[in-house]
Amino acid sequence: MCVLALLARQDGYAYDIASRLAEAIGMGEGTIYPLMRRMQGDGLVTTYLEESSSGPPRKYYQLTKAGRAALIAQKADWTDFTASVARILTDAKPARIVGGVT
């Protein structure tokens, strides 16, 4: 979902996406490449090459219509999930400590 959200803002290449995720949520770089291949195979992203001033052309990823639809669905699921967790946390009563164990 986070990758889809980043790509909804702007196209990106894998290393850039990984760097932004590492900074924001601590996701490791090694997980991004298999994820991007899977998303491409699932039709959520397309790719194109763009020349780079610092080396070979970079493969950029761009959301497809299916990717945008997946983002909308995943955001709705996330909103429902976080609301459910918030209700549980709000309704939770403090645990009684018995013998140092909660």
Could you please describe the fold and organization of this structure?
The protein is of the alpha+beta class and 102 residues long. It has one domain (2-91): Winged helix-like DNA-binding domain superfamily/Winged helix DNA-binding domain (Arc Repressor Mutant, subunit A), CATH 1.10.10.10. Helix content is 56%, strand content 19%. The chain contains four helices and three strands, in the order H-E-H-H-E-E-H. It has helices at 2-9, 14-25, 32-41, 65-91; strands at 12-13, 45-52, 55-63. Strands 1-3-2 form a three-stranded antiparallel β-sheet. A hairpin with a 2-residue loop joins strand 2 and strand 3. The longest helix has 27 residues, at 65-91. The radius of gyration is 19 Å and the shape is elongated. The mean pLDDT is 90.
Topology:
Elements (H helix, E strand, L loop, with lengths): L1 H8 L2 E2 H12 L6 H10 L3 E8 L2 E9 L1 H27 L11
Antiparallel strand pairs: 1-3, 2-3
> Please, what is the average pLDDT?
90
Helix content: 55-70%
The assigned CATH architecture is: Orthogonal Bundle
What would you give as the CATH superfamily? Answer: Winged helix-like DNA-binding domain superfamily/Winged helix DNA-binding domain
Work out the count of structural domains.
Answer: 1
Question: For the CA atoms, what is the radius of gyration?
Answer: 19 Å
Structural class determined from secondary elements: alpha+beta
Counting DSSP H or I runs of 4 or more residues, the number of helices is: 4
- Please count the beta strands (DSSP E, at least 2 residues each): 3
For this structure, the quaternary state is single chain
Give the termini separation: 35 Å
- CATH topology type: Arc Repressor Mutant, subunit A
Unreliable residue runs: none
